[in-house]
Amino acid sequence: MVPLSFTNTGEKVVVRSICGTGHLAKTLGQLGIIIGIELTIIQKAKESVIVRIGESRYALGAGAASMVLVEPL
Amino acid sequence: MEHTTYPHQYLYGWTGIVALTTCIAGIIAIMEGAGIGTGLFIPDIPGGCILILLSALFATAVMKGRTDRPGWISFSYIGALLLVVFAGCAILVETGNFLTLIMEGEEAHLLTIVSSSFIWAAILAIPLLTGVSRLLYRCSCGGDCCE
Amino acid sequence: MKDIRILLAGNPNVGKTTLFNSLCGVHQHTGNYPGVTVEIKTGKRQMNEHSIIVSDLPGTYSLSAFTPDEQVARDALLTSGPDAVVQIIDATNIERNLFLTTQLMEIGLPMIIALNMCDLAEEQGITIDADCLEKNLKIPVVRIVARKGEGIEELIKTIIRVSTNKTPAFHREVEYPHSVTSHISEIGNYLGAHGTLLGSLSPHYAAIRLMEGDEHLEKMLHEKGLTIPFIDTSDPAERDGIVEDILLARYRAAEEITTCSVKCSMGRVMPGDLIDQVLTHRIFGIPIFLSCMWFAFQLTFSASNPFLVGIEYIFGYLTELMNSVEMDPFVRSFLSDGVIGGVGSVLVFVPSIFVMFLLLSILEDTGYLARAAFVMDRLMHSVGLHGRSFIPFLIGFGCNVPAIMATRTLQSKADRIITIITIPFMSCAARLPVYVLFAGVFFGAAAGNVIFFLYVLGIAVAILSALIFRRLVFRDEPSPFIMELPPYRKPSGFAAAVHMWFKGREYLKRAGLVIFGGVIVVWALATLPAGVEYGSADSLAGIIGQALQPVFAPLGFNWQLVVGLIFGFIAKEVVVGSLGTLYGGEEMLESSLAADPTLHPIIALAYMVFVLLYLPCVAALGVIRQEMRSWKWTGIAIGWGILVAYVFAFIILHVGSLVIGA
């Protein structure tokens, strides 16, 4: 399991865990980033990332990306 | 690019040519701005820098083209699109300036409207744009980008 | 016939505003600014004998209110008691949109679903069985393409049908696990016994909201002295677990409904992904963005110039016309310096503001603006700002008023406050005439460079202020950047033009009146006491200026400049006009300034820096107070601006004098 900030462009991953339960986790949840969901990494900058879930695309800054732990498919 | 089919090879070569011409256009624009006049284009240092940026995009597309086909498509598409859009903006900007001069009663040449370096660089990029955008959409409809 | 009141809800970027414009056309009133929908616009649509009043809510992903936007939407939905709610769903992304639907359904209001962008879905090979969707949700579904105005009639008919139908609405229920439902009944029963406190919410629904973590509702019930079972007795970990269960249940329901009613074509490489890889590239991303901004600014200036010249001609002509007519000199002065000068000051900015709004609308519609925010976020984060602040900053270069209103999308209060305090350092368009005047007179050919330096200084001061406030006052990090990137869409020139028109109109109504009023005040102060020479040291304006001049003596400003600053408080556009008045006429202003022995280039530079930094105009201050909701912070913003302006002007004056040796 790695945080999103350590993945690579083009990978397909599955969310295994979300650190913390505060505002951030709730916001991620509302957007559909929950445990068990599949993501495609569209673009990876140094620590921030753009992911695609189904038809929607989300950009996560460094802070948010490091809180989502994923596993490659 | 050993297994390329016929139109793609030409398009790829054309990308290289556009990279070169855009870079030259940028350099000339900067030279004009710095005072070394050739009288071809409007002096425009920032514009020249932007043109050189775009030529870097095309160059990246060329370098990617060997191994990463979608990469070539995306970089040349964006480069060409930006170039054409900016050229359109340049025409609008020069038209505005032209109108202002006319209304103030000063001398203005109609030719200045099309004297921005962007326009000439863009003309060469138009075939690239049409070719690559078709490839781009073929990618999206389930077809293989490669052939 | 009673009016029918409906609310338009939905995720951001689904076309709510387009639909609203299609429904209500020009019959709307709005306090709305580019970047995002931040206030509730209300409009009216007539069909036969029915009058439908439509309110456009801010886009939200869910009813858990984190940002001010979401709170506004939540409050409207839960407390305003509309006749029906229309949720707009993006047909190309139904599953995600259905999450909100599961929440809206539970409120118990009659609902209609407007399935928008059906044409795009078709293009992408997505087939939707609307009847199946309808049966699944037990909510009427209407296909529309808001951009083209298709399906609107059908939608209105459905709205009327649903609203006038008196039977209660029964929608599909979300299946929660037993652990959740047992607590819901427990809380529901408890609240039922104290039912009168909940207003229009049913106890059952209130229970669900409490379980999901509606802090506002919790607080309200606690204030009435209630101890809520489970909510107040369990530990946070358990409660979080329940929140997660509810979340999962909702997504499961959304997934079920989607698989049953929506069929996609085969997976594919999205062109949007490829484009994103270039536009958000770690090396090319920022330069591409800067290039776009360069052209945007160029376009704004050169597109508005011809209009400016035209306006100048018209006003020159009007003035000549008036000079040829016999009238009382007092009236003549009022009309030419006051009215024409006032209207002129406002009109001079109209073209650039409209062009700016148009360009921003187009950029937003294509979806590029969100990518640009992401690209800039890393930079902004390192100076203590949130990536989302960048859109307000951009707007701030045109006018600070809409920029400050656009900060509503920032989630954390600290982010918002810091952004609002630093926006005024973005030199707005109204300050430019001051720079052009002084730089032109005192710096000649180097004027352009001086003006560029001023803009850069503004940005530098903004960054410095952000760092100071972030590190010393708030001592935390900006909240994490999470943003949806909407799909790339071809911008509709027509839709953008409509947006531009409405937003420009709002700017005129708000700022325009203030500026016009300001010019009249300037004129009055320059003309009174009666009989005094217009704009001389004996007029009220002169008296005030001379009284305050000692405060500015260390900066080298003479009393006329001081008066200019005071009027600049009313509206920046007025500074040049008031200086013109005080120096005896705008036409001669440049030569008068050059000839004034108390002025020289260093003082001119210090003055321009002061105008750049000191404080925004009254209209902007009003908005600051509105957004900050506290006099303390508004005062801090004002104080900081004046302090920074004074310090920098002082430094420039004295360092500059040393350098020149004057």
Distance between the terminal alpha carbons of chain B, to the nearest Å? 12 Å
The portion of residues forming beta strands of chain A comes to 35-45%
- Termini gap of chain A: 11 Å
Number of helices of chain B: 4
In terms of DSSP E residues, the strand content of chain B is under 5%
Give the radius of gyration of chain B: 18 Å
Unreliable stretches of chain A? none
Dominant shape of chain A: globular
Major beta sheet of chain A, specifics? Answer: 6 strands, antiparallel
Largest interface: A-C, 34 and 45 residues
Whole-number count of domains of chain A: 1
Detail the topology: elements first, then pairings.
The complex is a heterotrimer of chains A (73), B (147) and C (662).
Chain A: E1 2-3, E2 12-18, H1 23-31, E3 38-44, E4 49-53, E5 56-60, H2 62-65, E6 68-72
Antiparallel strand pairs in A: 1-6, 2-3, 2-6, 3-4, 4-5
Chain B: H1 6-34, H2 45-65, H3 69-103, H4 117-140
Chain C: E1 3-10, H1 16-24, E2 28-29, E3 41-47, E4 50-56, H2 68-79, E5 84-90, H3 94-107, E6 111-116, H4 118-123, E7 127-128, H5 130-137, E8 141-143, H6 152-164, H7 178-193, H8 203-212, H9 215-223, H10 236-261, E9 262-263, H11 271-279, H12 285-323, H13 329-347, H14 350-366, H15 368-382, H16 390-396, H17 400-405, H18 413-422, H19 432-443, H20 447-474, E10 482-485, H21 493-527, H22 540-552, H23 559-570, H24 574-582, H25 589-595, H26 601-613, H27 618-628, H28 631-660
